[in-house]
Batch of 4 targets.
Target 1
Amino acid sequence: MNNLDKEFIAEAYSLIVQIEELIKKYEYEDRVMSAILIGILDIDFQNQPKEGDDVQLKSVFSYNLDSKDELEVVKQIMTAQYEDHDDDIDNFLNDLGISLN
């Protein structure tokens, strides 16, 4: 991890702390569900990683959840809201009768 990566992670962590402080300021600990993960891949782009190579994820995270049930709810929401852009393009092209195969 280079110095720029470290600076990025430190600044991201600082922003996460600000969000945590905002939740506390409004006394919303019992009303806010949050799960934050920010990570940066620790990859040596000089030597392109090959399939099967280990890649490290340097991350900071925070959560304001009361139970595993709340964690499951957050995971379900994130899964439902995630859009696979490749699927969107494929579906759009298929709707137009265009195939890239």
Target 2
Amino acid sequence: MKKISLVVLFILLYLPIDANAFEPTVSRKRTFDETIDSVLSKRMELPLVRSKLENPNSKFVPVYGHVMDANDTRSFDITDDEDMFVAESLFLVLNDRMLQKNDSLLKRATPDVQSQYKRLMNRFNFISLEKIRIHVDYYYDRAKKAWARPLADDSVVTMKMIVKSGYFLYQDRDLFIGIRRYGFYVPSSNVKRIFFNDGYSEVLWKSPDKVSLDSMKVIPYKLVEKIPHDKRMENRKKVENLLKNRDFTAIPFVLKEMDEYCEYNSCLDKDDYRRYLNVLKILYWNGVFKRF
């Protein structure tokens, strides 16, 4: 949070005195928020704003505005605390269930997945209840397909969601148990966007009725990434079998496969694995294997 605050302060200090924080100067640099948007857009396949706006099955009314700071008490209602109490009670129940499910999946996972997960789970893993308050400038009327101003001057939408951060197990339709990395990101309060119940648009510098939304993407609050299966032990067994069977000519192809795997997946304990590969290469190219 401190890093984000410093970036926001830097941006505001360099705006002209009469400039609006939500309106860019003509020759501005990309903001921190736009940089984050760009990184996430490149790493993920994201839906378009237009398709989310016109989704007839969605019960959530899309809004345009900005995230409110935690200490902003505008339109604060006592029912917010009551709702939060209910959400926290539900969270405690769901939290226990999710942790139990994760433990159950770990017991049923393959030895390789268990080993990989145990290396990862030592990192920062937790489940939390998050609250987001959005100050609304416009809401989207799906019936009229138009943006409209809310009746109240200080209209606020509050969302609560349970999120995971870190590494957790999952089971797909083929009953394969794997690992996913979970994250959670809420955009800062100094830029405006279109908000949905499960995500938000890229930064908008003008009101949504004055810009084209056809190519604009929706970034999820909850970030999920599948962790590829760790094939290092599997590849080591391949080499062992080749040595036992004296199939020395196949070793270079396995080494190349192992090299490519590590380059693409950024292997954990990469230095140790590299040393293992280098020793194998030296032994092979010097004809050591053929002497046995």
Target 3
Amino acid sequence: MKKLRIVLITILVLPVIMSCGMNTEYERTDCSMLSGKDALRCVDYRQRKANAEISHEAAELLKAYRQCIQKHEGDVAKAKESCAMYRDGLERIELSSMSCSCM
């Protein structure tokens, strides 16, 4: 019974342990040097990582934009002037993500 439990745990846990290092490998490896499924996984990993970074940046910009708007809540002209850089940054991120989504 104990041996069966060890075998089952090994079968279930081993693939997870083996795949843990793959993401860090893709960060250090040039995807063009890989072939087949490894190259596709590498490119997919890099795209997902870039998308996550863009999403994080957009979230931070949106948070700062909301804080700026709240800070200048009573004065619309001042809010437009002071918060324009956040709005512009969010528009650039939105445009760049729209242009990449068709690939």
Target 4
Amino acid sequence: MMEKLIFIFCCLIPSLLISQEDLYQTTRDEFNYGEFRPNNVAPIYGIAEKPGKLLGNIYLDSIFRSSTVVFFKEIVKRYDPNASDSIAGYKLRINLLEKLVEFKMKGGIKGIDNMAIKKIQTFDPAGNILKTYINGKILGIDSEGDDGFYELVFDGPTIKVVSLAMLKKKEPTYHVALSMGDKNAYYYFKTLYFAKSMHENWKEINNNKNAWLDLTGPKAKWMESYLQQNQLNLKLPTDLRQFFQYFEKIMHE
């Protein structure tokens, strides 16, 4: 009896192996080419990757600076018709992302909408003026900065120059399938320059030497010579200011 059972089992082995092989091949085909997907959303397996971050600065100056602030009169009158339209001594910084001016108070940070403020001056610890910012809606410049602050770079009788720092975001370049690129996004500044000659409208200026020299008109040769002698870099606000200070000087000699 035992010998018969062993004989029958041995006869069945090849067919069992064939069936096993068929099943193995079917699963393999489905895995490679078919609908074999244990979870329709997640990968079959994988290692969790670190997410990207949002990096960069959203402030014109991240340091809280001592200041004087001039509000639009119509804003102040809503609260007190007899109140002054200016305050001084508060430390602040300008938030480009939220379009707010953040004041450092004893109880925390107080944010005031850009559109309530006409002008801001910030000071260093010695009391010297660092920056002057003017609300875009009073300048009449046709640009994207109507709800932001322009920095006053130079203010002369013949020419005025302002700059507008615009907050931009560089998106991640990471490619999931290739596992290549940068996962982080970055805030950065794009700075535009505008100039206004006497009796003319504001116009955008390319921030390069030739464009600034063109603004000086018949004095361009003198200004180019001054530029070379003093080795000024007009991409620096301090050098640009010096350049136009000299221009105003020779214009009124």
